Amino acid sequence: MATQEITAPNMDRFWNDDLAAADPDIAAAIDKELARQRDKIELIASENIASKAVLEAAGSVFTNKYAEGYPGKRYYGGCDYADVVENLAIERACELFDCNFANVQPNSGSQMNQAVFLALLQPGDTFMGLDLNSGGHLTHGSPVNMSGKWFNPVAYGVRKDSEEIDMDEVMAIAKEHKPKLIIAGGTAYSRIWDWEAFRKVADEVGAYLMVDMSHISGLVAGGAHPSPFPHADVVTSTTHKSLRGPRSGIILWNDEKYTKPINMAVFPGMQGGPLMHIVAAKAVAFREALRPDFKDYAHAVVENARALAASIEDNGLRIVSGGTDNHSMLVDLTPMDVTGKAAEKGLDRAYLTCNKNGIPFDTRSPFVTSGIRLGTPAGTTRGFGPEEFRKIGAMIVQVVEGLSRNGDDGDAEVEERIRREVGELCAGFPVYPGM
Ligand code: DSN
Q1: Where residue 434 falls among pLDDT bands split at 50, 70, 90?
Q2: Residue 221 burial by CB count (10 A; 0-12/13-18/19+): exposed, middle or buried?
């Protein structure tokens, strides 16, 4: 057999090519995504714009590192700097949310919640969560999610008249079903959560109280929404929404008795090696959120949401529950007989990005819906204030009116004019100007 000469691979391109040279297709998609974020107005309530520093940490050499285990107790060598990063992330998370313990390894919101279930429940156990149709989350007991398949979820909802959570009803449901765990928190609920009242319900039936503050954790960090501590046993949060960090999750608690079950549930229960580059980016985001100016940001998010909601109502559409106390709102499109699906598409044509969303007691399917969900965290990060959000509210209603007049194709002239107005607004508030 002829022997083949083996030559050392040429690594020049490996070390030196930037993305545009190494993979023009992906580089082009990233460039287009940057342009989209710059040129359109981001109104998805669960999205934000992370800082350059967060992006840098997320794209760092920690992507190469395995660090299964926890600081000081790893299953791999070479973890000195991984320990530095993870310890800083833990310390900063505890300082930010004024709690004793944090696990900063969950890769996502779904995994952080699954880890709490693994730590505190057994398959088949009963737990309570806010109904998805009332603004809850898939991982809080939806029948299509693991939480709804492997456990026994009992839902609480919002009242039909006020569209707000009724704590008397929560108490009654808890007494009837005796859940082992109660989840407070949601994805489309725009009112203040009464953590203390949830604690009373949990104590009454001997349940754990878990708060999933993913949507509002930036507001909690900035003092613009009451903290779930000291009321909750365990608090979970994603880190990329109002908190403005990388796409990821955290678990927080005060009582040492939860430390072993939660840490064991995250690793080795749910996950293997933590994404150390993302843990580093979380640490950076927590440091940013500890700065005094983050308080200003959090309060501005709420003030802007109030301005947006008021403008939408003044222009003729209804806000679910009559307003907002946080970063988000649900717009009821039924007065103009427009679906959420058509509105999401029409608004996107006008360079306003949002998502269709069911409203409480919606008669339409989740793929169609009678509402849209809007939020102000990303717009506030780029510098918009109440004046800009009032303009955005008027634009949104004009697009919806076009859909109401002309059907799903909308009013092309109105959408074209609004695209121009969005362009003018965005030009005054650049995103990632140096990139
Ligand atoms: N998908 C997120 C949201 O948009 O609210 C929650 O996980």
Answers
A1: confident
A2: buried
Is the model's pLDDT at 5 over the cut of 90? no
Q: DSSP alpha helices (H): ranges in 71-216?
A: 80-97, 109-120, 146-150, 167-177, 195-205
pTM for this predicted structure: 0.97
Residue 311: C-alpha distances to residues 277, 386, 397 (Å):
41, 10, 9
The pLDDT assigned to 1 comes to 61
Contact 93, 104 (CB under 8 A): yes
Any idea which architecture 295-428 has in CATH? Alpha-Beta Complex (3.90)
Residue 102 has pLDDT above 90, yes or no: yes
Atom of ligand 1 nearest to the CA of 187: 5
- Residue 212 annotated among the catalytic residues of the structure: yes
Question: 118: phi > 0 → left, psi -120 to 50 → alpha, else beta; which?
Answer: alpha
DSSP H/E element including 319? strand 318-319
Supply φ then ψ for residue 87, to 5 degrees: -60, -40
Provide the token pair at 357: 């969303």
Does 132 carry a binding-site annotation?
yes
DSSP codes, 13-25: HHHH--HHHH-HH
Buried b (16+ CB within 10 A) or exposed e, 258-272: beebbbebbbeebbe
For 238-284, the pLDDT digits (tens) are 999 999 999 999 999 999 999 999 999 999 999 999 999 999 999 99
Amino acid at 1: M
Peptide linkage before 9 cis (omega within 30 of 0): no
Q: Which of 139, 187, 238, 369 is catalytic?
A: 238
Domain 57-289 has CATH 3.40.640.10: yes
Residue spans per domain, the chain: 57-289, 295-428
CA distance 398 to 401: 5
Beta bridge partners of 181: 127, 208
Q: Tokens at residue 246, please?
A: 């990388």
Bridging pattern class, strands 126-130 and 181-184: parallel
How big is the chain by its Cα radius of gyration, in Å? 23
Q: Summarize pLDDT for 124-150 with one digit per residue, the tens.
A: 999 999 999 999 999 999 999 999 999
Q: Are 199 and 227 within 8 A, CB to CB?
A: no
2 band by pLDDT with thresholds 50, 70 and 90: low
Q: Which atom of ligand 1 is nearest to the CA of 44?
A: 4
Annotated active-site residue in 40, 65, 241, 390: 241
Mutate-to-test residue for ligand 1 from 110, 187, 217, 354, highest number of ligand atoms within 8 A of CB: 187
> Is residue 268 within 8 Å of residue 74, measured between CB atoms?
no
